[in-house]
Write a structure and sequence with these properties.
This protein has one domain (2-19, 42-93). Helices cover 76% and strands 0% of the residues. The protein is built from three helices and no strands.
Length: 94
């Protein structure tokens, strides 16, 4: 039983960690702030689309998980929804 909880929890948390890892990464360069190149903007957009896909998959896994897990499953779904919202906002801003 504990093993199955770990599987869906890992699937739920990994995309969120990926998303926040991408959004919190330090800009590259020598310390000065520079505008991203067209290639960097394109790559960032693809990363966000990939994060969107992973978050949707995590939401589906969480939604299909049996049991409430003391309300933690529903809170995880809510946080995935919040992360999806932020990804969509980032894509629109891009």
């Amino acid at each position: 039983m504990k093993h199955s909880r770990l599987n869906w929890l890992t699937l739920a948390v990994a995309p969120i960690a990926l998303f926040f890892g991408l959004s919190l990464s330090a800009p590259s360069g020598t310390g000065g702030v520079t505008a991203p190149t067209a290639q960097e903007r394109h790559e960032g957009f693809e990363d966000m689309r990939h994060a969107d896909k992973l978050l949707r998959e995590a939401r589906a896994v969480l939604s299909g998980a049996p049991g409430e897990y003391g309300g933690h499953r529903d809170r995880a779904i809510k946080r995935v929804d919040e992360a999806l919202h932020e990804v969509h906002e980032a894509i629109e801003h891009h």
